[in-house]
Fold:
Amino acid sequence: MSTATTAPAVSDTSQERRQLERTWSDPPGFYGWLISVDHKSIGKRYIITAFAFFVLGGLLAVTMRLQLARPENHLVGPDLYNQLFTMHGSTMMFLFAVPVMEAMAIYLVPLMVGTRNIAFPRLNAFSYWVYLFGGLMLYTAFFLNSGPDVGWFSYVPLAGPEFTPGKRADFWAQTVTFTEVAALTVAVEIIATVFKLRAPGMALNRMPLFVWAMLVMAFMVIFAMPAVMLSSTMLIMDRLVGTHFFNPAEGGDALFWQHLFWFFGHPEVYIIFIPALGIISSIVAAFARRPVFGYLAMVLALVATGFTSFVLWVHHMFATVVPGMGKGFFTAASMMIAVPTGIQIFCWITTLWTGRPVTKTPLLFVLGFFFILVLGGLTGVMLASVSLDSQVHDSFFVVAHFHYVLIGGAVFPLFGGFYYWFPKITGRMLHETAGKWNFWLFFIGFNLTFFPMHQLGLEGMPRRVYTYSEATGWGDLNLMATIGAGLIALSVLVFILNVLWSLRRGEIAGDNPWRAGTLEWATSSPPRNDNFDFIPAVAAHEPLWEQKEEPAKTVGLSTEVREVLITTLLDARPDHRLTFPDPSIWPLLSAIAVSILFVGSIFTPWAVVWGSIPVTFALIGWFWPKPGKPKRTCRWKSRHDP
Amino acid sequence: METVHKLSALAYPVAVVLLLSGCEREERRFREPPPATTAIESIRLSDLQPGVPTPAPAIANPYEENAYALAEGKRLYSWYNCVGCHFQGGGGIGPPLMDDQWIYGSEPQNIFATIVQGRPNGMPAFGGKIPAYQVWQLAAYVRSMSGLVPKAAAPGRNDGMSVKKPEASVKGQPPKKTGRPP
Amino acid sequence: MSGFRQRPFEKGIAQPSRSCFEGRTAGGIALSIASSGCSGIQSALDPAGPQAAHIESLWWLMVWVSAAVLLLVTLATLYAVSHGRQARGLDAEPEATPDPVAERKRALIVAIPVGMTIVTLFGLQVASFTTDRTLASLSTDNAVVIDVIGHQWWWEVQYVETTPSLRVTTANEIHIPVGQPVVLRLQSNDVIHSFWAPNLAGKKDLIPGHETTFSFKADRAGVFRGQCAEYCGYQHANMGFLVIAEPPEQFYAWLKKQRAIPPPPDDPIRQHGQEVFLASTCSLCHTIQGTPAAGKVAPDLTHIAGRQTIAAATLPNTPGNRAGWIVDSQRIKPGNRMPPNPLTPQDLQALLAYLGDLQ
Structure:
């Protein structure tokens, strides 16, 4: 029973193909959708859910902008406004930005590395349900007037038991727990997929830059997320059972929270940014009609950015009592991280310069990224200086900065990625003219909204203010920002309409509408259930460009059970076969049990004890060993078989 | 699949609308008339009544389910110097407030009356010095010290020296009216 | 407040000079940002002291460097996508394996902007550290020492003296002498706040459990507004303060006046006003020296009439505003700690008359 890497086999047994398709398909109907462990199905629902949260977060933002459009406005009072900005930040950071990037990884990484499913498929399903339930919990709390009102980073003592009564901050803390569990599990799956499930011949230095970016992100998630899980747990314990982690009078420290949170919080923004860099690399290569220049430099830049992002966190605390000498170190590190990002930008510009760029909508979003992200990065260098930061910290200047780097650095590439991969996911192209309208409305609206905020910050307008007086003179710039926000909303509406229209009437895409080079374009659009009938064998960096004949194939995996090929870490030589799980209800049940435990522990510590019982049962059901299924292998005929 | 998505898309807003009836625990009311200011007239200190006893009017204090009001009560307990005599509920110069012995009654209106009217042997009369709604907040907080309010609304620990369990962790103590002034 | 010119107060706190806000076009905005004359009483771009001035210089250096970088990158990008070579389109053959010799040459060329980036960042870092050191080296000889304690949502200000009877306690308004360094000792009574008067210096957080000092100096006289810059609850938006820099003689005269205890009122209306103050809810929270009212949890009102603003630099200090604040502060700053005080009209007028005399 061996697998053989062979030249294109005679794929003549259509019956075997149908069997393979059946083996990898979900049961029909709603129940089949519930129990699916297919990375494409889960990836799609993850993307749609994250996008729904993006729209919700955007609506919150528009409400805030309407309140701030005029001085001394009475649209929204202070209590609701505080909930609005907290929900906006928490939604965008925890419920949209990280999940959507992980969702792109869930969908695309297995296709790009040439395998049938993501590693740990049931854990993948579990992750989605936990994420969904966490988001639902937060919004339910918000609609019950129990939405958190302490800011998305929830500083103590304001978020502590004395100054935020009720359960608002507890809902925030548990949302963090939900989303961090979801993110950590996906990170583990990505690393396992990238390390062990690559197609034979896809050595580490032949991996697409997108896959490298997702790998770096996944490692960052594993190292960064525990800090915030720890701090949010400590916060809940302070509030629920009266511990003193953050109580200075009893030996705790308010700054302790900031250190723990920002040790997570700074890598968090790079967790959002680095996958976007991967998306950019994919788009630039396809639309410049050449591989990205400087592959080794690009990979090292990604890794360097990932590492360096862990030593920047105190730049969020420059106004505190941290000693000046210590702050200086973080100034140096915060400026230094611009170097690997700069290297990446120069390499992309070189790619475009020496290639033959085709300016379709995905590339337009990339160009938008260049301008906005570089501007945001430059204000970031300004903020890295302790002295300058002491003026503009916690003002609208910072609001401008982080929206430039997050929207320019992550959302623009994401939209570019949507336009780029929509044909692969759905089989139809998005409308190109609508795409250009989408882009220009977004670009103009974005700059109109956020550029004036630099000036507002310098003129003394702090963050998180629900109103300001007429005499400050901030009214005109705020009005301009609100108009820009309306344009952004319009552009997102254009996108949604484009998607809805194109799902039915879009031009049929075919396998590779962009004539791109990476493996996800080697399968049908949308991909078959099994992704590839034969696991491809990779001999080059851009397989579809360089392997002129149809890419070589690997034969020998069973068609009757869900088998995948495990390869070695560095060179991706075939190592062994592994049977992946069939669709299962246990991830959903486990997620429900875990959610009950988490939500219950907001109200009583006993929930941790009693809630463990359903979790235990669910996990027992999940891991209950199943009898091995009989399987036949080596049924494919090839030219070389006797 | 499409039907599933459409149905689930509908179900959520419907549920939300139903639940939008609001959550009393989390209301933050900054300007509102207090529950009752004239209730004080119907409060009885003596159990003895001529003829058939008139039932006492039930005056619920909605602040007892409101986390913000209880937190305000806790703040005012320090600000208006209740700690000066009652300390953090353990009593000292004044009687303890966290136990199950209630000299003048444990109902919200009894506590309201005690604060507003004052009591023999040292309890000042705060009527006219503390607005009525704040007295109700204080009354709610005093009841929380014996665990008589819902746990989810009761305050947690203070940011300060820790001298007692947080009110949210206190076991409920069914009140006993002792009727015996100190 | 006699003598020196201030900006006139009308509806709001002050009318900032509008020199940089003419022309609301995009060009006007761009110009206004580029111009060096953005003035205002709450602006980092209108320094009134050395700390803010050093930071402003660093700001302009960084703006020009950043603008140059952004321009270069934008031009390079636009050129890269627009300079035509061969036929385009997605059907064009991709250059799957670019010529290694050409790629090496390109690598050497790309090394140039990379090197320039590193050099530029290094230079900016040196500029930043230089500014940090300059700010830290402000001499604090002969400084006026002031304790600033942050409350939700007002600023308690205490002028530090070794002799207790010389201490001055006020709220939301800090007078400082021009040309003399000021050292603020910052503490918080409850949550984290942040002291930020952009015309004078950067900000410093007030963190419970961590007392810290913060020094600056004013080089010219003026009234400068600051605001809390760390989200601290419902009325974070309205937690402002004024820093009033005045010539040293005026400052010391003001300090002396602050130390004086107001005499008891001598006419019946004001006496009734004082009774109202002492007999109703006010004295439980506020202090007026020379009276039994000694509440410590709210701003000291001993010299309330002499301040330019009330409600933490939110309202000009006029009798009408004082009346509105006393009767229903929750309408002005919902969620703040002062309860509404429904008073009869006679009591209110008497109280206002009494408070209006507390200069």
Observations:
- The beta strands of chain B are 101-102, 176-177.
- Residues 24 and 60 of chain B are 14 Å apart (CA to CA).
- The first strand of chain B starts at residue 101 and ends at 102.
